[in-house]
Each structure stands twice: as structure tokens, then as C-alpha cells.
Design a protein that fits this description.
387 residues, alpha+beta, nine-stranded mixed β-sheet, 17 helices
Length: 387
């Protein structure tokens, strides 16, 4: 183990961070995406510092293959974009860079200052950037070329002790960004880290702050929960901390008044986790099936006209999952799949255009059992691709 030193405002040498070498952490290089390594190497070739950061480092330490590889660098977004042609600057609140590869996207952020608090967008140094990270286990930097972990906050020790410790003062952390409460739940469940009493107390007290978070940010966090393989446990914790009503208010209302729905919903989330971990539920639409299935069973008219059933069920399911706002294509896919599981076969295809001069007026045919119905192209343009 090494020590990283810096200088304070008076020029005195002070200890800033612990540096864990390969002998200490034993991270397997083969667990790191080769394109992530190339991005870091290229940034360094241009004279910038670059590291893996956050969840990827956390997973690497425990020997788990990370799902995402986030990168932090001293290069500003405009410089990153010049280096990588396959990139795009995104974000209004925080300017980030996405680097695109055929089947994956890497998020690259710039070290940020703490002059505007932990949610400002001023660029700064690594020493400042670490103080903006939410929890110690999420504030570790890894240099894959030197094979070193830089730990400013005691994150490695907290991981070993299975302890979730905030970096930002507890009176400020959730007030500046309420979404951090959801991340605390995710980190606690996925890593098995226990939360100290003062943190749990602050989360319960701060739950109403989630009502101020935009639907787009909540949608992003809910999708991460669905992708985690721990959705059932996280949602149960969200109920305990009074978060669930802000994530899925429709389901929360039904769970309050119907024990049967609560049991069915928890079983569906447990099935979702099994499907995610086994790789059977890859696209978002497959995951949404488990979110709407039990509600859809309650509201669908299983003996009705399939076209009308689809229309009614889709609009009700859209309201049911608010404030979550997934892509229309994915929710349509989930609704159709649930209806098919219940025996209603909705075939959606584009009809051939017929010139007005050749159109014939005919009475509508009566609904017959056992046939497949067509939904006009005007009803939806995209679902044909699903079937």
C-alpha cells in the first residue's frame, strides 16, 4: 500500500489518499472491457489523467464483472470530443461525453469542482471530484495501466466492513439530490452493505423530496433497478422507507388495499430478477411485462374485441406505471406480450393503401372467436417490428 500526498493552502504536505497496488486488490484485468481500456489509454496519450470510477471499481474489487464502465478524466468535454470522433457531448445539468461503439456506450465525465456544492458543473481536480461522490464505496478510482486503486475516503475499508458511509454530509446529501436515496438502497442491497442508523433516519425523513425529482430521472433510476437482478428486494426496501409511492404510485395504491395484489406483485418482481440474472429478459419491454402483468390481469376484458382491449389496456398501463415514462415501443411490446399470455392474440400490421377510386364500402364483419385481428397502421406504426 502506498500513500498519495498533496499540499494544503499553506503549502504544507498532507496525506490525501491511500493507493492500493495489485498485491492489495488482486483485480483481474480480464474483467475490464477492452474498449474501456483503450479509451483510458488514448486519453493518457494526449496528456490527460483518466480512471475507472464508481460502480465498476466496486464490482472489480469483489471479482464481479461490471455491467458499465464509467470513466473520469481531467479532459474537458470539448477536448474529449476532439479525441474521439465516435462521441457526443450530452446533458444540460452536467455536461458528459458518451463514446459510442457498435453494441455499447461509455460515459466519460470530467473532474468537477465543489465550488457550487456537490451538484455544480464547474470543472475541477481529482481532489475536489471525490468530495462530490455520494458514498465511499462509490468514490474509488482505478488506474488500469498502473493497476492502482486511489482511495480518498476509506471506501476499500468500508467495502471490507460491509458498511455504507456517505461522503457528503448527511444533512446535505439528499437535499442537494434526492435520487441519492434510491442509490443508497441499491448499493445496500446489491453489495450487502448495512446503513448506519443516522443515514436510515435521514432517508425516512427525506422521502417526500422524491416528489420533486423529474420523471426522466426517476425513469432512469427505476430502469436501473429493473436491470439490477435485485428489483424485488429493492422495491421492498423502498416500501419500508416510504419511497415506493413516488416510484410506482399506481402499484402502491393497490398494495395498500389488496393483499392478493401485493403477493402477486412481489412474486412477479422475484420472477423478473430470475429472468434478468439468467439472461432471459434482455430488452426493457421484457422487464416491463413483470411490472404491469398483475395490473393488466385485473383490468383486461378477456372476452372483448382484441383491438378495443389493446387500446384500453395500453392507456391504463401507461397511467399505472407513472411517473415512469419508458419508450412507447417498449411499453407497447410489454402490453401485447401480456395479452398474448392471457389468450388474446393481437396481430398488428400495416394495411396496403388502396386508391380511393377502388375502395368499396362494406358493412363491418361481426367479431368471430378464434381469429386474429388487425390493428390499423394509424393505431401504431412501430409494433409490427415486434411480431
Amino acid at each position: 500500500m502506498l500513500i498519495r500526498y498533496s499540499h494544503d493552502k499553506k503549502g504544507r504536505t498532507v496525506k490525501k489518499a491511500l493507493i492500493y497496488t495489485y498485491k492489495d486488490h488482486k483485480i483481474k484485468r480480464q474483467l475490464i472491457d477492452s474498449d474501456a481500456l483503450r479509451i483510458i489509454s488514448r486519453l493518457k496519450d494526449f496528456g490527460y489523467d483518466a480512471y475507472l470510477v464508481g460502480g465498476a471499481v466496486r464490482d472489480l474489487i469483489i471479482g464481479r464483472h461490471p455491467k458499465d464502465f464509467d470513466i473520469v478524466t481531467s479532459a474537458e468535454p470539448s477536448s474529449i470530443k476532439r479525441i474521439f470522433r465516435n462521441s457526443r457531448v450530452i446533458g444540460k445539468r452536467f455536461r458528459l461525453v458518451h463514446i459510442f461503439y457498435p453494441d455499447k456506450i461509455f460515459e466519460v465525465s470530467t473532474f468537477r469542482s465543489i465550488k457550487e456544492g456537490s451538484v455544480g458543473n464547474k470543472f475541477g481536480t481529482m481532489d475536489e471530484d471525490v468530495l462530490r461522490r455520494d458514498f465511499t464505496i462509490n468514490s474509488l478510482y482505478y488506474d488500469p495501466e498502473k493497476e492502482q486503486i486511489i482511495d480518498y475516503t476509506g471506501g476499500v475499508r468500508d467495502m471490507q466492513a460491509k458498511r455504507l458511509t456517505p461522503v457528503i454530509p448527511v444533512k446535505v446529501i439528499f437535499r442537494e439530490d434526492p435520487v441519492r436515496m434510491l442509490r443508497a438502497l441499491k448499493y445496500s442491497v446489491s453489495s450487502g452493505c448495512r446503513m448506519p442508523f443516522y443515514l436510515r433516519h435521514e432517508m425516512k425523513k427525506s422521502a417526500p423530496m422524491l416528489n420533486t425529482v423529474s420523471p426522466s430521472r426517476l425513469t432512469e433510476e427505476i430502469i436501473k433497478i429493473l436491470n439490477s437482478g435485485n428489483a424485488c428486494k429493492i422495491m421492498k426496501e423502498a416500501v419500508h422507507y416510504d419511497f415506493f409511492m413516488y416510484l410506482q404510485s399506481g402499484a402502491a395504491d393497490l398494495m395498500d388495499g389488496c393483499r392478493d395484489f401485493t403477493d402477486a406483485y412481489e412474486k412477479s418482481l422475484a420472477s423478473l430478477d430470475e429472468s434478468v440474472l439468467s439472461g432471459k429478459a434482455e430488452r426493457l419491454g421484457d422487464k416491463l411485462v413483470f411490472l404491469i402483468r398483475d395490473f393488466l390481469k385485473m383490468i383486461a376484458d378477456w372476452k372483448g374485441n382484441p383491438v378495443e382491449v389493446y387500446r384500453n389496456v395500453y392507456s391504463e398501463c401507461r397511467r399505472f406505471i407513472l411517473p415512469m415514462n419508458p419508450p412507447r415501443m417498449e411499453l407497447e411490446y410489454a402490453v401485447i406480450k401480456c395479452l398474448e399470455e392471457g389468450g388474446i392474440d393481437v396481430r398488428i400490421r400495416k394495411k396496403r393503401r388502396i386508391p380511393a377510386s377502388r375502395k368499396k364500402v362494406s358493412a363491418k364483419e361481426p367479431v368471430k372467436a378464434g381469429i386474429k385481428y388487425e390493428v390499423p397502421a394509424s393505431e401504431t406504426e412501430k409494433i409490427a417490428a415486434f411480431l
